[in-house]
């Protein structure tokens, strides 16, 4: 599986402006009972997360979308499919979520990590990409991959961008 990792992806000022939004006590997150649509969690107590969907179904879904729009130029996106912020709450033991694909058609994906923690992304070939603040992962999200919780921070935060 081809992938690319870029550390210090954004200039400090731009990254700090996004983290100020993501970590704001006023930024709304929405409860998701299941980690992904392809798998209904058997253990509902440990496998939920929170999201803020900025863009989906060909439309802006958030008043905060404009603050993140510049990322599309940064990743050279020609067309946006979805942009969402994920918040995986801390668990007592690291939970590896069921493998999934974002969409079943070929497209591009970028995950930008907002905080350092012991959580990670697992690619189809087993490669683990650690959650490091301001790290960007470019990969093919139409291939199986997994997310995890974290155990050493209150939550694991990232933004997931699906695009052409």
Cα end-to-end separation: 18 Å
Please compute the radius of gyration using only Cα atoms: 15 Å
From N to C, what is the helix and strand string?
Answer: EHEEEHHEEEEEE
Proportion in helices? 10-25%
The fraction of residues assigned to DSSP E strands is: 25-35%
Mean pLDDT score, rounded?
93
Assembly context of the chains: single chain
Largest sheet: 8 strands, antiparallel
Based on CA inertia axes, which overall geometry fits?
globular
* Structure annotation, total helices: 3
| Total strand segments | 10
Query: Structural class, from secondary structure content?
Result: mainly beta
Description:
With 164 residues, this protein is mainly beta. It has a domain at 1-22 and 29-96. It is built from three helices and ten strands; from the N terminus they run βαβββααββββββ. It has helices at 12-22, 65-68, 70-74; strands at residues 4-6, 30-32, 49-56, 59-60, 80-89, 108-113, 120-122, 128-130, 136-139, 155-163. The strands form two sheets. Strands 1, 2, 3, 4, 5, 6, 9 and 10 form an eight-stranded antiparallel sheet that branches. The protein has a two-stranded antiparallel sheet with strand order 7-8. Strand 3 (49-56) and strand 4 form a beta hairpin. The radius of gyration is 15 Å and the shape is globular. The two termini are 18 Å apart. The relative contact order is 0.26. The mean pLDDT is 93.
